[in-house]
C-alpha cells in the first residue's frame, strides 16, 4: 500500500495569516537567510505521524473525532516570537500560543492516546504549542536581539473548531500540504 507522510493540524483563518504576515514583515528584509513559511502553509501542528497508510488515516480520523466529541471548541492567541536553536542562532522561528495553551496541550494528549490505542507508534516528544513562521540553515546572528524588542501582545485570536488531517510532500521548493480529512471539535 501507498504510505502518506501525515500530520494533524489547526489551520489558520485568512485574518490570522494576514496578521502574522504583517508581524514578521520587518524581519524578512533584515534576515534574508531565513526561509519564511508561505502564508498558505501556516498552521499549528498538533501531532506529526510520519508515514501512514490511508486506512490508518481513516481509522485515526474516526477515533480522534470520537475522542474529541466532548472537548468543545476554544479560542487561542498567537503571541511572542521565539526560536529553537543553539545560543542566539535560530533553526526554527515560531509564534507562541498564549491564551488557550492548556487546551492545545489537551488536544495533543487526546490525539496521542487515540493513536497509541490503535497501535500507531509516535516519537516521544514534549509538546510545545507553536506556529512555525521560518527556518534557517545558515547562521542568522543578531536575530535574538532583533526579536527582543518586538511586541509581546497577541497579534491574533483564533477560534479552534476544526482539525485538519494533512499530507506533507517534501519538494525542493518547500513542502506541499494537502488536506485529507477534517475533524470537528
- What's the CATH architecture? Alpha-Beta Complex
Number of helices, counting only DSSP H or I runs of 4 residues or more:
4
Q: Per the principal axes of the C-alpha atoms, what is the gross shape?
A: globular
> Structural class of the secondary elements?
alpha+beta
Succession of helices and strands: EHEEHEEHEHEEE
The count of DSSP E runs of length 2 or more, i.e. the number of strands, is 9
Main sheet properties: 5 strands, antiparallel
Helix content: 25-40%
CATH class label: Alpha Beta
Tags for this model:
single chain; alpha+beta; Cyclic Phosphodiesterase, Chain: A; 4 helices; 9 strands
Set out the fold topology:
Layout: E1 3-11, H1 14-30, E2 34-36, E3 43-53, H2 54-67, E4 74-86, E5 89-97, H3 101-117, E6 130-136, H4 143-148, E7 156-160, E8 162-169, E9 176-184
Antiparallel strand pairs: 1-3, 1-8, 2-6, 4-5, 4-7, 5-6, 8-9
Helix pairs in contact: 2-3
Amino acid at each position: 500500500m501507498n504510505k502518506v507522510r501525515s500530520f494533524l493540524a489547526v489551520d489558520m483563518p485568512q485574518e490570522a495569516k494576514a496578521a502574522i504576515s504583517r508581524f514578521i514583515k520587518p524581519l524578512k528584509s533584515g534576515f534574508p537567510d531565513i526561509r519564511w513559511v508561505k502564508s498558505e502553509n501556516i498552521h499549528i501542528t498538533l501531532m506529526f505521524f510520519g508515514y501512514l497508510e490511508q486506512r490508518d488515516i481513516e481509522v485515526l480520523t474516526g477515533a480522534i473525532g470520537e475522542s474529541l466529541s466532548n472537548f468543545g471548541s476554544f479560542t487561542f492567541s498567537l503571541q511572542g516570537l521565539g526560536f529553537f536553536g543553539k545560543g542566539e542562532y535560530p533553526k526554527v522561528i515560531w509564534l507562541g500560543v498564549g491564551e488557550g495553551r492548556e487546551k492545545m496541550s489537551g488536544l495533543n494528549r487526546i490525539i496521542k492516546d487515540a493513536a497509541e490505542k490503535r497501535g500507531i507508534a509516535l516519537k516521544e516528544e514534549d509538546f510545545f504549542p507553536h506556529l512555525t513562521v521560518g527556518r534557517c540553515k545558515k547562521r542568522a546572528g543578531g536575530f535574538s536581539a532583533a526579536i527582543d524588542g518586538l511586541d509581546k501582545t497577541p497579534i491574533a485570536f483564533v477560534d479552534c473548531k476544526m482539525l485538519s488531517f494533512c499530507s506533507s510532500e517534501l519538494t525542493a521548493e518547500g513542502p506541499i500540504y494537502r488536506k485529507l480529512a477534517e475533524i470537528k471539535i
